Please model this.
Amino acid sequence: MNVKVFATLFLAVFSVALGVGLMVPLLPVYAHELGATGLAIGFIFGAFSLSRTMFLHYFGRASDTKGRKPFITIGLLAYFLVSLAFMFTESIGLFILIRFFQGIASAMIFPVALAYVGDITPEGKEGFVVGLFNVSLYGG
Model:
């Protein structure tokens, strides 16, 4: 197994998961300050889950044919830029749209990184390596 590639993927997923873990508890407070109702806050959280669910299989399949690195790289860049966009949000509609795009960026990172780990894992070590890799997601 290529340890450098594994470590890079591990750190990338860990940093994204950590960012989400730090941001999610603050989203309702920030949205409320913008005037969001409980229903709007539900849409903010739902937009992320909806877009992620819609695009997970697409990016996973596309990375099988076009390669893993471009999707992970573009996904990380998109996630970073979308996260910066929260600072400039002044409306609930834009907030929901940003979360929708954040879900798309997330769909470009997590399944593709896991598939990449599968690609570099030696036969017979799949369970151990994938379990170890999942520490990056749940540890973040």
